[in-house]
Amino acid sequence: MLKAYVFRANSRPADCRRYIEAHVNALRAYGVNEVSSIDPIWLKNPDVFIMLIEEKDTGLIVGGARIQLAHEEVPLPIETAIGHIDPKIKELIQERIPGKTGEFCGLWNLTQYAGFGIGSITLGRMGVSLITQLGMGSCFAFASITTTRNCYRIGFKPIDVLKNQGVFFYPTDQFKTHALLIDDPEIVSHAAPHDRERIFSLRNEPIQCYYESGAKGKILVEYNMIVEGL
Predict the structure, then answer these.
(1) Which of 47, 94, 194, 229 is the most buried (most CB within 10 A)?
(2) How many distinct structural domains can be found in the chain?
(3) 83-107 confidence digits (pLDDT tens)
(4) Residue in 93, 103, 82 with CA at minimum distance from that of residue 171
(5) Among candidates 71, 100, 56, which has minimal Cα distance to 209?
(6) What is the phi/psi pair of residue 54, to 5°?
(7) What average pLDDT does the chain have?
(8) Does the residue 115 lie in any domain?
(9) What is the DSSP string of the chain?
């Protein structure tokens, strides 16, 4: 059995450290040692929210991600990553700050659970369900080529107005990464039907148990999508 939950980053520093360590180890397994998005500068930021999935019995983190709200003085990870290549990303973010925007970032998962449907798609549904709880009018993402397909499933669209239609090579020339945006989080009109249904279910029933399934079978996940003190 797994449990999936969310919390404000600065309220649980120990769990944030666990998330960072697990994320770094996952990146190293792919040969990536340095990326801007794991800079712990956000640890004390009250507008960063962490999503974790872990084994209920052992506490082993199976996957995680975070949402970071945008501010004038604190650049989003996507801006730090590609702002020097295409300054227009900053313009797009600044335009949306009055309506509350941010970034869905820092996503990773253990491959051994992917066969049970636990991975980027599960965390993606959690993230998009969280967007409206946070009152966001839009959300950016910067996804690897392997994750982009699942981002499309949960309602993200490519940012075609950026250079090369929003496709960049980051963190190294070996990795093709896509700049993405959700601009209708209330209705997520571009999401696939089943994923849209799950997003709405997590919004309407934030505490629930659900059997996620994949090629290897099913696994029960206890969800708690309520952010304490929000």
Answers:
(1) 47
(2) 1
(3) 999 999 999 999 999 999 999 998 8
(4) 82
(5) 56
(6) -145, 160
(7) 90
(8) yes
(9) -EEEEEEEGGG-HHHHHHHHHHHHHHHHHTT----GGG-GGGGG-TTEEEEEEEETTT--EEEEEEEEE--SSS--HHHHHHTTT-THHHHHHHHHGGG--EEEEEEEE-GGGGGGT-SHHHHHHHHHHHHHHTT-S-EEEEEEHHHHHHHHHTT-EE-TTSGGGGEEE-SSTT-EEEEEEES-TTT-TTS-HHHHHHHHHHHH-SEEEEEEEETTEEEEEEEE-PPTT-
> Cβ(132)–Cβ(203) under 8 Å?
yes
Q: β-strand 176-182 against 157-158: which pairing, if any?
A: antiparallel
Stated pTM of the model: 0.91
Q: What is the CATH classification number for the domain harbouring 95?
A: 3.40.630.30
Q: Is residue 229 part of a domain?
A: no
The one-letter code for the residue type at 116 is F
Please state, as a whole number, how many other Cβ atoms lie within 10 Å of the Cβ of residue 128: 27
List Cβ neighbours of 81 (8 Å cut-off, separation of 6 or more).
Answer: 35, 36, 37, 142, 168, 170, 171
Position 186 confidence tier, pLDDT thresholds 50, 70, 90? very high
* CA 7-12-14 angle, 5° bins: 130
Q: Are 191 and 154 in contact (CB under 8 A)?
A: yes
Q: Which residues on neighbouring strands pair with residue 213, listed in sequence order?
A: 218
And the tokens for 119?
């991975």
